């Protein structure tokens, strides 16, 4: 929908010719009726008749932008800004066009200039926050979303964006920690937190215990262990861990500044700690997650919204409750029935829930409407494969790989589909590329069969031996996890 402030920015230049004035009025009427594509040729004719007029150039660019012709609109907005560098509607429109073309880095500069000129412009600030987030500048994005919540405290989009920005900060800190030392007790503590969120309490217990063995005096881990005990029906053991938590000495704030800030409830200040040590990154991740929870809690206090249903759907997906996730995506679509992103997420959750027939239907509707997402083509193709329809699966999987040649799950699925319809020679390169995904041995087994059918007996024997090794290791690991991950009393 054409934003009101942009529509108000449409220029009605004074024309010497009544004919040109009439055409300008006609184009404006078409814009008001959202018939943007029809307005474009009229504005092009006006620009040709009055070359270099910034008002007409802006109107033309705006009509192109609203009609989805982003690439064509950008030079016109840039020409306007060359003549009038501080014209806010052109700055905002240029940023919006860059975002629509998935060029968030290039959207940042004009949108920053727009909010400098008009700090109360919520559309510009929201787009700037989105552009910063999409560019990986999560701290700056969170700052803009925070200001947006101050300008619009009842806007669910602002709170949802703020929560997501904080979650991205937390994930970024965790990724940096893993690159330094994936077996660090600080990393293990965060992994355990994630397992609790997914209700994988045995696994969480295992990671918390290892973290406590190596970091016995770190605040919060005993309390987290107590929560695991409560969730698994051991209140007496939880009480012991709670007592240990209460007896911990206060941290030395000179040596442990980030932890001291977090324990003191200063979450935002924790994010600003300059140290990049594992300890500091641990508290940064914890603080960002806490801030995300606060933002999402505020979102939950608002009236029902697309963003609230989207959040619930994501939480359900993370907990492998895919039917519940489907329910939430459908509830979101009742509020925004034409949102392609919601339809795509619904297709993904239907696939994850094992409702492959419904997933195929949803994916095909989006593809027919012009969507070019490799994930959608994969969902359609792999669903056909799981429905024992390999012939129907092949064209969708081939299209997915044409859009994203590095999509290993699509290689695996296409290899399986081709082997099932007897095209083993064609299946071999796809199965081979996907072997790194094989955690249960099934791909090695199918690869071995395809090699055998293609007359490559020696390679087939090698693959079958690797398949048997994977099966043996998996059984050993299952037995070890079963032994180690029992919920045991405090040490």
CATH T-level topology of the domain at 4-135: Serine Threonine Protein Phosphatase 5, Tetratricopeptide repeat
At the fourth CATH level, what is the homologous superfamily of the domain at 4-135?
A: Tetratricopeptide repeat domain
Helix content: over 70%
Q: Tell me the number of strands.
A: 0
In round numbers, the mean pLDDT is 92
CATH class of the domain at 4-135: Mainly Alpha
Question: What integer value in Å does the Rg equal?
Answer: 28 Å
C-alpha end-to-end distance: 61 Å
List the helices and strands and how they pair.
Blueprint: H1 4-8, H2 18-32, H3 36-49, H4 54-66, H5 70-83, H6 88-100, H7 104-117, H8 122-134, H9 138-151, H10 156-180, H11 185-197, H12 201-214, H13 221-231, H14 235-246, H15 257-263, H16 267-271, H17 278-301, H18 306-318, H19 322-335, H20 340-352, H21 356-368, H22 374-386, H23 390-403, H24 408-420, H25 424-433, H26 442-453, H27 457-484
Helix pairs in contact: 2-3, 3-4, 4-5, 4-6, 5-6, 6-7, 6-8, 7-8, 8-9, 8-10, 9-10, 10-17, 11-12, 11-17, 12-13, 13-14, 15-17, 18-19, 19-20, 20-21, 20-22, 21-22, 22-23, 22-24, 23-24, 24-25, 24-26, 25-26, 26-27
């Amino acid at each position: 929908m054409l934003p009101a402030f942009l529509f108000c920015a449409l220029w009605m230049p004074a024309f010497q010719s009544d004919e040109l004035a009439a055409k300008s009025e006609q184009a404006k009427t078409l814009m008001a009726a959202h018939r943007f594509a029809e307005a474009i040729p009229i504005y092009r004719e006006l620009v040709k008749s009055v070359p270099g007029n910034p008002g007409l150039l802006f109107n033309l660019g705006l009509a192109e932008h609203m009609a989805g012709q982003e690439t064509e609109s950008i030079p016109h907005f840039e020409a306007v800004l060359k003549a009038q560098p501080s014209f806010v509607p052109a700055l905002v429109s240029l940023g919006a066009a860059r975002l629509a073309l998935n060029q968030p880095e290039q959207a940042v500069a004009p949108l920053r200039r727009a909010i400098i000129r008009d700090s109360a412009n919520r559309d510009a600030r929201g787009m700037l926050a989105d552009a910063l987030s999409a560019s990986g500048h999560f701290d700056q994005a969170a700052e803009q979303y925070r200001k947006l919540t101050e300008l619009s405290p009842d806007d669910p989009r602002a709170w949802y964006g703020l929560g997501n920005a904080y979650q991205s900060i937390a994930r970024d800190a965790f990724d940096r920690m893993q690159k330094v030392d994936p077996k660090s007790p600080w990393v293990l503590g965060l992994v355990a937190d994630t397992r609790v969120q997914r209700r994988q309490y045995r696994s969480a217990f295992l990671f918390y215990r290892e973290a406590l063995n190596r970091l016995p005096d770190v605040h919060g881990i005993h309390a987290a262990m107590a929560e695991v005990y409560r969730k698994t029906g051991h209140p007496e053991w939880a009480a012991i861990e709670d007592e240990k938590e209460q007896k911990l000495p206060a941290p030395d704030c000179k040596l442990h500044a980030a932890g001291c800030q977090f324990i003191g409830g200063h979450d935002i200040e924790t994010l600003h700690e300059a140290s990049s040590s594992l300890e500091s990154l641990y508290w940064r991740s914890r603080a960002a997650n806490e801030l995300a929870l606060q933002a999402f809690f505020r979102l939950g206090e608002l009236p029902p919204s697309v963003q609230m249903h989207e959040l619930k759907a994501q939480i359900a997906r993370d907990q492998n409750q895919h039917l519940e996730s489907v329910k939430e995506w459908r509830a979101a679509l009742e509020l925004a029935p034409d949102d392609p992103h919601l339809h795509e997420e619904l297709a993904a959750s239907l696939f994850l829930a094992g409702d492959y027939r419904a997933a195929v239907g949803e994916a095909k509707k989006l593809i027919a409407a012009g969507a070019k997402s490799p994930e959608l083509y994969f969902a359609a193709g792999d669903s056909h494969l799981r429905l024992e329809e390999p012939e129907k699966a092949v064209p969708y999987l081939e299209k997915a790989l044409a859009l994203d040649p590095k999509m290993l799950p699509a290689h695996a699925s296409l290899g399986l589909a081709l082997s099932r319809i007897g095209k083993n020679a064609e299946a071999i390169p796809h199965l081979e590329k996907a072997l790194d995904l094989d955690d249960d041995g099934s791909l090695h087994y199918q690869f071995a069969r395809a090699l055998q059918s293609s007359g490559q007996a020696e390679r087939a024997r090698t693959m079958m031996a690797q398949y048997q090794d994977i099966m043996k290791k998996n059984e050993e690991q299952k037995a070890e996890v079963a032994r180690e991950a029992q919920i045991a009393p405090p040490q």
